[in-house]
Amino acid sequence: MMKNPQTAIELVAIDCDGTLLDSRKEISTGAAKAIAEVNAAGIQTALITGRNVDAVRFILDAIELSGPMVGCGGAFIYDQHSRKTLEMHTLPMDKTIELVKICRDYQSVLYLEYLHYAIYEKTNALMEHLNSLHQYNRRRVSDLLSEIQTEPVKAMVIGEENVSSVIDEIQRRGLFGNFVFADAFSADILPESVNKGVSLRSLADIQGVPLERVAVVGDWLNDLDMFNVGGYKIAMGNAPAELKAQADLIAPTNDEGGLAWALRKILKFKREKQ
User: Which residue among 22, 58, 60, 105 is buried most deeply as judged by most CB within 10 Å?
Assistant: First the structure.
């Protein structure tokens, strides 16, 4: 599938895991060079991710992304150049405290994410492996309730078999209603009315770019929200069929340099319109 953009692209919103990063959680082949080429052509580049700032620090240090980043699934917009938070949404403190108690009852791992760090009191082998990657700023504490000083921007619930039970209990109590499922064993809890699409609208407005001139690149179902907003949609080759069905262009996989390929297609389209 290939459909050329109807207008010149001025901003490319790039997903992180499965798109910018390969399956080893490393920057994919050719991505840094291709992003530099896009920036040089006057097209802005921005990262849109479920991670917080410090969890993508290794990317920001290695790649010059010209635009601000959208983090924690849309909970904040952060300008890494000025180190200013341009927009932020948080989870209510009272509901967060009740969430901690529910996860304790169900023996689920709970991460509370903030702009630059995360805290947790229970872990598992998968999370310990993730913690070892790129020196993520995550801190294990003995008692989450005594450590919570400010409202988190996101919560992540993880469990081998009991994530659905935790979510059912959360919904039964009416605590939260905005869930994003990364896989069968984990769920992100986001502030109400927050998703990648909503924050992409805000980002485009901040950067002064019409939405029809925004291209988005993603690989998973939580990228559908920004696919519904952006003017040009690119799905990675490793994306599920539901996302590919909404795409204007399908790139190779994240292990085949798919992002670099997609960005050079955008540059080709730009040259053809000049």
Answer: 22
AA identity, residue 197? G
What pLDDT, in 10s, does the model give residues 119-164?
A: 999 888 777 776 676 668 899 999 999 999 999 999 999 876 678 8
Asked if 105 and 99 count as a contact pair (C-beta separation under 8 A), the reply is: no
Residues of the chain with CATH 3.30.1240.10: 93-189
CB count, 10 Å around CB of 140?
14
What CA–CA distance (Å, rounded) separates 49 from 55? 10
What's the pLDDT at 1? 59
Interaxial angle between packed helices 93-105 and 163-173, expressed in degrees from 0 to 180 and rounded to the nearest 10:
140
- Cα distance between residue 70 and residue 176, in whole Å: 21
Q: Where in the chain is the domain with CATH 3.40.50.1000?
A: 11-88+195-273
The structure tokens listed for 96 are: 């967060």
Cα 203 to Cα 70, 166, 269, distances in angstroms = 8, 33, 23
Q: Please provide the average confidence, as pLDDT, over all residues in the chain.
A: 93
Helix 31-40 to helix 258-273 angle, to the nearest 10 degrees?
Answer: 20
- For domain 11-88+195-273, the question of CATH label 3.10.280.10 is answered with no
Contact call for residues 253 and 237 (beta carbons, < 8 A): yes
Tell me the whole-structure pTM to 2 decimals.
Answer: 0.94
Q: How far is CA 175 from CA 77, 96, 157, in A?
A: 24, 9, 14
Q: Are 64 and 33 in contact (CB under 8 A)?
A: no
Cβ count within 10 A of residue 75: 27
CA separation for the pair 103, 248 (Å, rounded): 41
CA 203 – CA 192 distance, rounded (Å): 18
